[in-house]
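Sat 14:20. Reprocessing the chain from the morning session after the first attempt stalled halfway. Input below, unchanged.
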Amino acid sequence: MATDPNTTASDGAATPAAVPDIAATATAATNSAKAGIQSLKDEAQNLAGTAKTAALNAAATGKDKAADALNEAASFIANAAQTLDEKVGNGVGDYARKAGTAATDLADTLKSKNVDELVEDAKTAVRKNPAIAVGAAAAIGFLLTRVFRLGGKSDKA
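Finished this time. Tokens:
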């Protein structure tokens, strides 16, 4: 009885002709897996790039909105300073004008710099004054908590 050289022996061991087929199959499977992994890596990089672009666009939009809000606040403060001068006295109005000028300067800075420059400025400020940065973060967190709590309350009378 002749046996096919590409089959296994009756004891389950591979015949010499079957070994190259197994090695070729394993190599093909390995190459296919490597190609799949590389494809996943490429897709992940594309998604990360897309997410980064979307985040930068959102940050730029937020920066512009913040600058506009600061300009509006500066205008409001300037009007309030005039009223304070009339009702209380020039000293109080001067403080309000200084605050308005500071708000305008901050708005101008926001408009003139891109997001990357602002992030680098923030990093530098934190490195120079870490205690102030922690205090400012705590204060901002407290204010945001208050704003969101007030915004989420409904009138239950």
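The longest helix spans residues 18-87.
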